[in-house]
Design a protein that fits this description.
The chain is α+β, with helices and mostly antiparallel strands. It has a domain of 136 residues: Immunoglobulin-like. Helix content is 18%, strand content 40%. Strands 3, 4, 6, 10, 11 and 12 form a 6-stranded antiparallel sheet that branches. A 4-stranded antiparallel sheet has the order 1-2-7-5. A two-stranded antiparallel sheet has the order 8-9. A hairpin with a 5-residue loop joins strand 8 and strand 9.
Amino acid sequence: MDFLTPLSYITDLVGKIGGVLSKRPRLSVEIIRFRPDSKDKRWIFRASVINRGPLAADGCEGYWSLFNPQLQEISAGTGVFWAPQSDDDYDFENRTFRTARLEYNERRFCWAEMELIAKSENGSEMHFFPYDGSVGPHTFAIVIEYCQFKAFDFVVINVPCRFTSSCQFDEVSDSIQWGQPGGLRGMLHRFKVRKHIVNVDYHEYMRPT
Protein backbone atom coordinates (compact mmCIF):
# COMPACT_ATOMS: atom_id res chain seq x y z
CA MET A 1 0.00 0.00 0.00
CA ASP A 2 1.32 3.44 -0.94
CA PHE A 3 0.69 6.61 1.09
CA LEU A 4 0.47 9.68 -1.15
CA THR A 5 -1.72 12.54 0.14
CA PRO A 6 -1.98 16.32 -0.30
CA LEU A 7 -0.60 16.66 3.23
CA SER A 8 2.58 14.92 2.08
CA TYR A 9 3.08 17.55 -0.63
CA ILE A 10 2.44 20.39 1.85
CA THR A 11 4.90 18.87 4.33
CA ASP A 12 7.49 18.50 1.58
CA LEU A 13 7.04 22.13 0.53
CA VAL A 14 7.39 23.36 4.11
CA GLY A 15 10.52 21.23 4.45
CA LYS A 16 12.03 22.78 1.32
CA ILE A 17 11.36 26.31 2.54
CA GLY A 18 12.65 25.56 6.02
CA GLY A 19 15.74 23.92 4.58
CA VAL A 20 16.57 26.94 2.47
CA LEU A 21 16.21 29.31 5.43
CA SER A 22 17.97 27.17 8.02
CA LYS A 23 21.67 27.04 8.82
CA ARG A 24 21.60 23.41 9.93
CA PRO A 25 20.66 20.00 8.52
CA ARG A 26 16.88 19.64 8.23
CA LEU A 27 15.42 16.23 7.46
CA SER A 28 12.02 15.66 5.88
CA VAL A 29 10.47 12.20 6.43
CA GLU A 30 7.64 10.69 4.40
CA ILE A 31 6.13 7.23 4.92
CA ILE A 32 5.46 6.04 1.38
CA ARG A 33 4.59 2.34 1.58
CA PHE A 34 3.24 -0.36 3.86
CA ARG A 35 3.09 -4.12 3.58
CA PRO A 36 2.14 -6.94 5.98
CA ASP A 37 4.46 -9.90 6.50
CA SER A 38 2.39 -12.85 7.75
CA LYS A 39 5.42 -15.16 7.89
CA ASP A 40 7.16 -13.12 10.60
CA LYS A 41 3.96 -11.53 11.98
CA ARG A 42 5.05 -7.96 11.43
CA TRP A 43 4.08 -4.78 9.61
CA ILE A 44 6.70 -3.10 7.45
CA PHE A 45 6.80 0.57 6.52
CA ARG A 46 9.07 2.20 3.92
CA ALA A 47 9.97 5.87 4.31
CA SER A 48 11.74 8.45 2.19
CA VAL A 49 14.12 10.81 4.03
CA ILE A 50 15.70 13.88 2.44
CA ASN A 51 18.02 16.49 3.90
CA ARG A 52 16.71 19.96 3.01
CA GLY A 53 19.21 21.85 5.14
CA PRO A 54 22.51 23.26 3.85
CA LEU A 55 24.66 21.12 6.17
CA ALA A 56 25.17 17.35 6.26
CA ALA A 57 23.16 15.34 8.80
CA ASP A 58 25.38 12.90 10.71
CA GLY A 59 24.33 9.92 12.81
CA CYS A 60 20.77 9.67 11.48
CA GLU A 61 19.09 6.91 13.48
CA GLY A 62 15.47 5.77 13.34
CA TYR A 63 12.79 4.71 15.83
CA TRP A 64 9.05 4.12 15.76
CA SER A 65 6.21 4.95 18.15
CA LEU A 66 2.60 3.82 18.40
CA PHE A 67 -0.01 6.09 20.04
CA ASN A 68 -3.56 5.30 21.19
CA PRO A 69 -6.57 7.45 20.17
CA GLN A 70 -5.79 9.84 23.04
CA LEU A 71 -2.26 10.25 21.55
CA GLN A 72 -0.64 8.55 24.52
CA GLU A 73 2.32 6.42 23.51
CA ILE A 74 1.64 2.74 24.14
CA SER A 75 4.64 1.09 22.47
CA ALA A 76 7.87 2.00 20.72
CA GLY A 77 10.84 0.27 19.16
CA THR A 78 14.26 0.63 17.58
CA GLY A 79 13.47 -1.44 14.47
CA VAL A 80 14.25 1.16 11.79
CA PHE A 81 16.95 0.37 9.22
CA TRP A 82 18.45 2.18 6.23
CA ALA A 83 18.48 0.77 2.73
CA PRO A 84 21.88 0.57 1.02
CA GLN A 85 22.49 3.64 -1.13
CA SER A 86 22.68 1.46 -4.25
CA ASP A 87 19.26 -0.10 -3.60
CA ASP A 88 16.17 1.99 -4.37
CA ASP A 89 13.83 -1.01 -4.57
CA TYR A 90 14.51 -2.34 -1.11
CA ASP A 91 13.23 -5.71 0.08
CA PHE A 92 13.04 -4.68 3.76
CA GLU A 93 15.27 -7.49 5.02
CA ASN A 94 18.81 -6.12 5.60
CA ARG A 95 19.38 -5.03 9.21
CA THR A 96 23.00 -3.98 8.73
CA PHE A 97 22.48 -0.22 8.48
CA ARG A 98 21.22 1.44 11.69
CA THR A 99 22.73 4.88 11.06
CA ALA A 100 23.30 7.03 7.98
CA ARG A 101 24.80 10.35 6.90
CA LEU A 102 22.75 12.52 4.55
CA GLU A 103 24.37 15.30 2.56
CA TYR A 104 22.49 18.43 1.48
CA ASN A 105 19.56 17.55 -0.80
CA GLU A 106 20.36 13.83 -0.54
CA ARG A 107 17.46 11.36 -0.38
CA ARG A 108 17.73 7.99 1.37
CA PHE A 109 15.20 5.28 2.15
CA CYS A 110 14.63 3.44 5.40
CA TRP A 111 12.19 0.81 6.60
CA ALA A 112 10.56 0.19 9.96
CA GLU A 113 9.22 -3.10 11.26
CA MET A 114 6.58 -3.45 13.93
CA GLU A 115 6.24 -6.99 15.22
CA LEU A 116 2.74 -7.69 16.47
CA ILE A 117 4.11 -10.29 18.89
CA ALA A 118 7.84 -10.51 19.64
CA LYS A 119 9.86 -12.73 21.95
CA SER A 120 11.94 -11.24 24.73
CA GLU A 121 15.36 -12.58 25.72
CA ASN A 122 13.81 -14.79 28.41
CA GLY A 123 11.27 -16.24 25.96
CA SER A 124 8.21 -14.33 27.14
CA GLU A 125 5.98 -12.52 24.68
CA MET A 126 6.05 -8.76 24.13
CA HIS A 127 3.00 -7.23 22.48
CA PHE A 128 3.68 -4.12 20.40
CA PHE A 129 0.16 -4.12 18.93
CA PRO A 130 -2.60 -2.94 21.33
CA TYR A 131 -4.10 -6.38 22.05
CA ASP A 132 -7.03 -6.22 24.48
CA GLY A 133 -6.62 -2.47 24.31
CA SER A 134 -8.42 0.51 22.91
CA VAL A 135 -10.22 0.69 19.58
CA GLY A 136 -10.32 3.54 17.10
CA PRO A 137 -7.62 5.60 15.37
CA HIS A 138 -4.08 4.83 16.55
CA THR A 139 -1.03 6.66 15.22
CA PHE A 140 2.17 5.02 13.99
CA ALA A 141 5.18 7.35 13.60
CA ILE A 142 8.69 6.87 12.23
CA VAL A 143 11.14 9.18 14.01
CA ILE A 144 14.63 10.02 12.74
CA GLU A 145 17.08 11.49 15.25
CA TYR A 146 20.05 13.42 13.85
CA CYS A 147 22.46 15.57 15.85
CA GLN A 148 20.19 17.15 18.48
CA PHE A 149 17.19 17.27 16.12
CA LYS A 150 14.29 15.01 15.18
CA ALA A 151 12.09 14.57 12.11
CA PHE A 152 9.09 12.26 11.70
CA ASP A 153 6.11 11.17 9.66
CA PHE A 154 3.03 9.21 10.69
CA VAL A 155 0.08 7.16 9.48
CA VAL A 156 -3.21 6.56 11.26
CA ILE A 157 -4.18 2.95 12.01
CA ASN A 158 -7.90 2.43 12.60
CA VAL A 159 -8.43 -0.51 14.98
CA PRO A 160 -12.10 -1.48 14.46
CA CYS A 161 -12.51 -3.86 17.41
CA ARG A 162 -10.67 -5.44 20.31
CA PHE A 163 -8.22 -8.16 19.32
CA THR A 164 -6.53 -10.73 21.56
CA SER A 165 -3.03 -12.11 21.14
CA SER A 166 -4.58 -15.45 20.14
CA CYS A 167 -6.02 -13.89 16.97
CA GLN A 168 -4.42 -14.89 13.69
CA PHE A 169 -2.09 -12.37 12.08
CA ASP A 170 -4.12 -12.16 8.85
CA GLU A 171 -7.33 -11.63 10.82
CA VAL A 172 -5.81 -8.61 12.55
CA SER A 173 -3.97 -7.23 9.52
CA ASP A 174 -6.92 -7.57 7.14
CA SER A 175 -9.22 -5.73 9.56
CA ILE A 176 -6.97 -2.71 10.02
CA GLN A 177 -7.48 0.42 7.92
CA TRP A 178 -4.52 2.69 7.16
CA GLY A 179 -4.35 6.28 6.04
CA GLN A 180 -3.14 9.81 6.61
CA PRO A 181 -5.53 12.62 7.63
CA GLY A 182 -5.45 15.57 5.27
CA GLY A 183 -6.09 19.29 5.49
CA LEU A 184 -6.30 21.18 8.76
CA ARG A 185 -7.14 18.01 10.70
CA GLY A 186 -3.92 16.40 9.52
CA MET A 187 -1.84 19.44 10.42
CA LEU A 188 -3.32 19.58 13.93
CA HIS A 189 -2.73 15.86 14.37
CA ARG A 190 0.90 16.28 13.34
CA PHE A 191 1.34 19.13 15.82
CA LYS A 192 0.00 16.98 18.69
CA VAL A 193 2.27 14.06 17.80
CA ARG A 194 5.26 16.42 17.57
CA LYS A 195 4.65 17.69 21.12
CA HIS A 196 5.41 14.20 22.42
CA ILE A 197 8.24 13.30 20.06
CA VAL A 198 10.37 16.39 20.72
CA ASN A 199 10.49 15.57 24.44
CA VAL A 200 11.57 11.91 24.16
CA ASP A 201 15.13 10.60 24.04
CA TYR A 202 14.71 7.69 21.65
CA HIS A 203 18.27 6.39 21.94
CA GLU A 204 18.07 2.64 22.68
CA TYR A 205 14.39 3.20 23.46
CA MET A 206 11.77 0.44 23.49
CA ARG A 207 8.40 0.20 25.16
CA PRO A 208 6.28 -2.91 24.61
CA THR A 209 2.69 -3.08 25.85
